[in-house]
Design goal:
Layout (H helix, E strand, L loop, with lengths): L1 E5 L8 H14 L5 E4 L12 H7 L3 H12 L2 E5 L9 H10 L11 E7 L7 H13 L3 E2 L4 E3 L2 H4 L9 H18 L5 H16 L4
Parallel strand pairs: 1-2, 1-3, 3-4, 4-5, 4-6
Helix pairs in contact: 1-7
């Protein structure tokens, strides 16, 4: 199973870059998992502009990011929260990715985690990030792990100081990988249920 991990943030000392590296360490130890971690800086892209798309096409950084997403069986993203919402670089990347056909995010299993310097551990940014991902038909894992007061949460080796936090993160990622490894989606099972109900109500004559 191939897992693609990244933090959609550009700052070198980002807390979310620290968190996604820890997540990478964890999932790399899972059996049958090939974990691939990349810096978001590897995928440079301008602010989305329809005129730029018309004249110059899709930027190379967007194409490279799309390729990594397409090749992955599941994606883990550690995103910050900017002013109580989805960070601009993340939303910009999603907007560019939505211009591709097919959209690489469609049908992908995604797990969102995050870190922020406030009390709410980037949870509001997490909620907002789910909306465009759902619109593009990605399957976003319902559970979430967040680090509050991130400026105090990491040690000098960029590891989480609290072992209970790392245990919670490990449990979340383990459950996500187990969930994402299924070949069926929740909608497949729902469709089967409705078909069964329809046949029960109207049996073949």
């Amino acid at each position: 199973m191939k897992i693609f991990l990244f933090a959609p943030v550009l700052r070198h000392g980002s807390f979310n870059k620290k968190l996604i590296r820890i997540a990478h360490e964890i999932v790399s130890n899972f059996p049958e998992v090939q974990a691939e971690l990349h810096e978001f800086n590897e995928f440079p892209m301008p602010v989305y502009d329809g005129d730029l798309e018309t004249t110059e096409g899709i930027p190379d950084g967007v194409k490279s990011l799309a390729k990594k997403i397409s090749e992955a069986d599941a994606i883990i993203i550690s995103s910050p929260e900017y002013n109580g919402s989805m960070p601009g670089p993340f939303k910009n990347a999603v907007d560019w990715l939505s211009r591709l056909n097919p959209v690489p995010l469609e049908g992908k299993q995604i797990c969102l985690i995050g870190a922020s310097q406030g009390y709410f551990a980037a949870i509001k940014g997490n909620f907002h990030s789910r909306v465009p991902l759902h619109v593009l038909k990605a399957y976003v894992y319902p559970d979430y792990f967040g680090v509050a007061y991130a400026q105090k949460a990491f040690d000098e080796k960029d590891q989480l100081k609290d072992p209970k936090q790392k245990e919670l993160l490990q449990n979340l990622l383990q459950n996500f990988i187990h969930y994402a490894s299924r070949t069926e989606t929740p909608f497949d099972r729902l469709n089967e249920f409705f078909e069964e109900q329809k046949h029960q109500q109207h049996p073949p004559q």
